[in-house]
Amino acid sequence: MSMESVFSPSSQSIPFTNNTRVAVIGASGYGGIQMIRGLIDHPNFDIAYLGGERSAGKRWSEICPFLPLDHDPVVQTPNAEIISQQADYAVLSLPNGFACQIVPDLLKHNVRVIDLSADYRYNSLDQWKHVYVKESNLHERQDKELCKEAIYGLPEWNALSISKARLVASPGCFPTTSLLALLPFLKQGLIETEGLIIDAKTGTSGGGRSPKENLLLSEASESISPYGVIGHRHTSEIEEQASEVAGRRINLQFTPHLIPMVRGLLATVYGRLRDPGLTAEDCTTVLKTFYSHQPCIDVLPVGVYPATKWVRQTNKALMSVQVDSRTGGIVLMSVVDNLIKGQAGQAIQCLNLMAGYNQETGLNIKGFYP
Ligand SMILES: NC(=O)c1ccc[n+]([C@@H]2O[C@H](COP(=O)([O-])OP(=O)(O)OC[C@H]3O[C@@H](n4cnc5c(N)ncnc54)[C@H](OP(=O)(O)O)[C@@H]3O)[C@@H](O)[C@H]2O)c1
User: Fold this and answer.
1) How high is the pLDDT of residue 13?
2) What pLDDT, on a 0 to 100 scale, did the predictor assign at position 84?
3) Active-site residue, selected from the candidate residues 64, 100, 147, 173
4) What is the pLDDT of residue 87?
5) 157 Cα: distance to centroid of ligand 1 (angstroms)
6) 117 C-alpha vs ligand 1 centroid, how far in Å?
């Protein structure tokens, strides 16, 4: 990508560019930094605006001296009108409850939006208020129509709708990892819709950059612990998407665990096959067939199980499946880098679709190892 067109910090003027202009709001956070890293590598996008709150007024080099941008832009307090003068797209990487405070204005100003938070992941605003109680008290929302309009940004399932969308709600990292493995079996009716269990593990970057006690090195290292047991907020998000694909209401168990690594997410999904005669080879064929034309998904051979290290820094989801013929149980294993395929990389995949490029353009999909 050419960085010649990045705005000058003093004038903040709109650069001339042939590339698609993207604003990154929440630039200083983990998602924002990954997004900027991805956009620097992208041949068709320019970083046109950086937004933030505590970081507003700072030069980018003060925040990320290790990731220089031409002209060393200044982070700004987000303003929809100014963003619309400088960018065609805005990616919002903000804590829950903040995107909805600016998205209606951005859309009014014809800026297409990808939101990485949960603000638009539910079709129903009431459902969001029910799940995100604390955040719903921050600000009165009047955008229930936008909740209905937003497209769930799972490109392997919603590519056409994403390509036309004004507003894309990027999925959570646990939902991305779990749904990619589970949905093909629900779609084909191969798996019982009751009794599904998702056991997931994530690294500490899943909690974002702002300080939290349980993410201190002395707390998280050399330890593994469940959190959000019964009622983690991603449960309802997974259930909503799974129910839509299955065509019937699904309630499932989801338990996340924090493990002592920085990035990476493993979801192991347990279910029961409707036809206990199906083998691991059959089920692997199902996954392979579903994703045969999907550049960001690889399905491993039977008996090879995915490791988070194999997808680190990439926009790849890697999965495999095993069957227990004694019990009729199916075990789906899926890994992603939570900050890339689980967050910013998937958002770039969506941006590519919205702007008319191949979905994998500019994204790393080959592993870095070890
Ligand atoms: N981390 C993951 O693995 C992951 C995966 C999928 C989705 N997500 C979701 O993605 C979103 C971002 O997550 P993250 O982990 O990147 O968070 P993070 O590291 O905590 O970053 C949050 C960003 O939001 C900015 N911000 C906070 N309040 C703001 C406001 N009022 N106006 C403008 N900017 C504001 C902060 O900027 P300042 O520093 O300037 O205050 C910071 O840049 C969250 O909704 C999260 O749930 C995260």
Assistant:
1) 45
2) 98
3) 173
4) 98
5) 25
6) 8
Ligand 1 atom, smallest distance to 209 CA: 19
CA 294 to chain centre: 17
* pLDDT at 18 (0 to 100): 79
Q: How far apart are CA 120 and CA 144, in angstroms?
A: 9
Pocket of ligand 1 (CB under 6 A): 25-32, 51-55, 78, 93-96, 98, 116-117, 172-173, 205-206, 208-210, 338-339, 342-343
Which atom of ligand 1 is nearest to 94's Cα? 24
The pLDDT, as a whole number, for residue 209 is: 94
Domains in the chain (CATH in brackets) are 20-149 (3.40.50.720), 174-338 (3.30.360.10)
Residues of the chain with pLDDT under 50: 1-14
Is 283 noted as a catalytic residue in this protein? no
Distance from residue 42's CA to the centre of ligand 1 (Å): 22
Q: How far apart are the first and last CA of the chain?
A: 27
Count of beta carbons in the 10 Å neighbourhood of residue 188? 13
Beta bridge partners of 356: none
Contact by Cβ (8 Å): 98, 121: no
Query: How many angstroms is it from 29 CA to the middle of ligand 1?
Result: 5
Rounded to whole angstroms, the Cα distance separating 199 from 336 reads 14
CB 268 within 8 A of CB 198: yes
CB 241 within 8 A of CB 182: no
Distance 317 CA to ligand 1 centre (A): 23
**What CA–CA distance (Å, rounded) separates 290 from 305?**
19
**Of ligand 1's atoms, which has the minimum distance to the CA of residue 338?**
3
* Cβ atoms 20, 355 nearer than 8 A: yes
Q: Are strands 297-299 and 265-272 parallel, antiparallel or unpaired?
A: unpaired
* Structure confidence at residue 200 (pLDDT): 98
d(CA 200, CA 43): 35
Alpha carbons 45 and 18: distance in angstroms, whole number = 9
Phi, psi of 66 (to 5 degrees): -90, 0
**Mutation to probe ligand 1, out of 77, 79, 116 (largest number of atoms < 8 A from CB):** 116
Interatomic CA distance for residues 294 and 182, integer angstroms: 16
**d(Cα 117, Cα 10) in Å, to the nearest integer?**
31
Query: Amino acid identity, residue 123?
Result: N
